[in-house]
């Protein structure tokens, strides 16, 4: 029996299944919303016919890949140029042929990873096309990785390349990780942080256990974020959706300290507060 790749049109999660899957496990999880109009789970061929590629370079050496129109959660896949070969972190919802050709032109993918399931996108496509020996995901999140093969389960820390280090934060998901680019001063923060933008200008920060359900992190989870992320030096953040600068370590520490000062919540803290 042939297995086919199917995507959830609501969140973008991919499943390898015998026929259209009965449901999307990511949308059924408390951290995501259910599709109001029911399940729409097209196969790879259908998705490929719907989408075009788009990419941009927010800073030298970093390229973000997206789809047009937006699909699922509208995620961005980051290709980061590094010593020893490119690192792909997170993934676009799908990679049309011209996106794969551009990645090939930029040197392909030597190492591949993601913060958590909301950033997996079509990570399986990059593995299928470029066969990187390292595919790194937090060991506590392996339950979500059925669509691709993890070759390096991450415990607490993993250096993917010189100056590019994965750190487990937990919190949003048990195995949630961030990727710190020490050379460029960028934190690829996954869903540890949500940035409110005014156009391209970051205005506020928040953190959540569940974004759609507006469930805050516990104090112990925020303390874990503070101890891991607060020890990293950065001046910009890249979520699975956008690049935001300036957002600094000091800005993020203010958010965490605000969360720890009282009842936890999901409200955004203006970046002007305390700057």
From TrEMBL:
It comes from the Bacteria. It holds the Pfam family Lactamase_B. Coiled coil: none annotated. Residues 74-232 form the Metallo-beta-lactamase domain. Transmembrane segments: none annotated. InterPro entries: Metallo-B-lactamas (IPR001279), RibonucZ/Hydroxyglut_hydro (IPR036866). This is MBL fold metallo-hydrolase. It comes from Streptomyces glaucus.
